[in-house]
Design goal:
elongated, 9 strands, 4-stranded antiparallel β-sheet, 228 residues, 3 helices, Immunoglobulin-like
Length: 228
């Protein structure tokens, strides 16, 4: 992408070679993003989810001694952002935003619900009951199933002696009804019109704003060598 917007061409881009170069880079960057977004999935990639891409917004400011880039990267960890120079006057900023979720359409009966967690309650556990038998004298006698109790005791003993295995915790059942934040991979390229000092470049990420300061290289001064 060109370093300066199109409105900059008329006021400061007096050199036609720089103007054509900026426009060429800008058009190529736009074409590349469109091709990546509309490429069909064929073959083995049919069942894989395509990588989502987005383009963060940047402001570029020029001073007498530096170029300043300010980009919006909300919710991105600094470890997921890479800044590098591909040539002496071109800087590339790329990164990735990840979020695991399951998207869906909210049903009408749960309108307004943002997340759905938990599982349906299981039916009430069946409890053993005591049966009443009536003897010949019409007296109620409580009977217990001795054989069943012995069988239960054996099962408990077997469970106690068997080695216990740790169960993996289940992932929370969460579902996003609305997903509007940008996620995926991003890459921005800026080409500077003049020489820059790559060794003095500094960058910081605070409150979702990436700030990159690129000092301009000192102008080459002519040095005269005296002949003895």
């Amino acid at each position: 992408m060109a370093l300066f917007p199109r409105g900059f061409y008329g006021s400061y881009g007096s050199d036609p070679s720089f103007t054509n170069l900026f426009r060429l880079l800008d058009d190529f960057d736009t074409y590349t993003r469109e091709v990546q977004g509309s490429a069909p999935e064929t073959g083995s990639r049919r069942h894989t989810q395509p990588t989502r891409t987005f383009s963060p917004k940047f402001d570029v400011r020029e001073t007498e001694q530096t170029y300043e880039l300010h980009g919006e990267l909300p919710g991105i960890d600094r470890d997921n952002v890479q800044i590098e120079f591909t040539d002496p006057q071109t800087i590339v900023i790329r990164g990735r935003v990840e979020r695991n979720y399951t998207a869906g359409t909210p049903p009408a009966q749960v309108a307004g619900v943002l997340t759905e967690k938990g599982e349906p309650h299981s039916p009430a556990a069946h409890h053993a009951t005591v049966e009443d038998d009536v003897d010949e004298d019409n007296r109620s006698v409580a009977t217990t199933a001795t054989g069943a109790n012995n069988q239960n005791n054996q099962q408990v003993a077997q469970r106690a002696s068997a080695p216990t295995t740790e169960e993996k915790p289940k992932a929370p059942a969460e579902k996003y009804w609305v997903s509007e934040r940008s996620i995926g991979e991003f890459s921005r390229t800026f080409n500077f019109p003049g020489r820059v000092d790559q060794n003095a470049v500094s960058a910081s990420l605070n409150n979702g704003i990436l700030t990159i300061t690129v000092p301009k290289a000192k102008k080459h001064e002519t040095i005269r060598i005296a002949i003895n």
